[in-house]
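Hi support team,

I'm filing this because I wasn't sure whether my run with beta-D-galactopyranuronic acid finished correctly. The job status page said complete, but I'd like someone to confirm that the output block is well-formed before I use it downstream. Pasting the exact inputs I used:
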Amino acid sequence: MIDRRHFMSIGAGAALTSGLAGSAHAQAKMVFKASDVHPEGYPTVAAVEALGDKLGKATNGRLTVQMYASMQLGGEKEAIEQAQIGAIAFARVSVGVMGPVVDDLNVLNLPFLFRSTQHAQTVLDGAIGQELLDKVTNHPTAGLIGLCWMDAGARNMYDTKKPIATIADLKGLKMRVMGNPMFVEMMNALGGNGVAMGYDQVFTALQTGVVDGAENNPPSFVFDNHFQVAKFYTLTEHLIVPEMVVFSKATWNKLSADDRALVLKFAKEAQAEERVLWNAYQQKALDKMKEAGITVVSVADKKPFQDAVKPVWDKYGPKYAATIERIQAVK
Ligand code: GTR
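And here is everything the job wrote out:
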């Protein structure tokens, strides 16, 4: 009898302890690692850091964000993979590299899809934007939560060889594109030779002549130093590819509903804050390009470029027809 009581009391004690341990676990301190290819000060980096500050304040330091900027953790493919396995929590990446992971996103990677960056913003702020974030979250194997969008302006061509004044000047140039077959096909359709490569390799590839050029928005061109080796920048605006912040589903599954709501709330705010920072940075980049004597070529007539990418639209357009129609209908 005595033994039995003894066991019972141990059992009750154990239950109590594990109950406490359970709630203590939910309240445990967590440091969320975040990855970005861009350096400190870049709009996307600053916006995710601000999200982290808010999270820290709201939870009395229980949840914080540790930013690994400047490709410290590798390129964007690596960032996605690390988020998938829960080695990092936040990955700020381009939709360009997310397309191969969540195919529905590839609609946004069609060249000349958006009429302007303003058009892209309106689409992403609305129902289509939310649906595409949900496609990430609900994807059966991606292992990611779609938190928010970030602006990245329009992408333009640049190279080390000569000004690209007309589409004919692209002929034969080896041009780096993001790791997504759609962009290789786009570049080839435009007459260049598309070379898919991680962002972490681009500077060296330009410097050593492995590629003749690349394409990107002015802040990336300037603040990732590509302008030090590529002196010709042509305003083709062929891609308006947004960026996103995704979160590790493995980590998400460990968070309480309240903590998830906090992350989502601050991510939405980060989306709006990044946009303001982006506009200022875009201007700063253009000023720096001018100072550095970069030859900036404007393209009066984009039609030859738009016509040339028709094979990409013929191949991928039908699959996304319904979403394209809705995007085009957004004023
Ligand atoms: C930048 C973008 C990065 C990365 C890079 C690239 O504009 O911010 O996320 O995608 O382009 O070309 O790989």
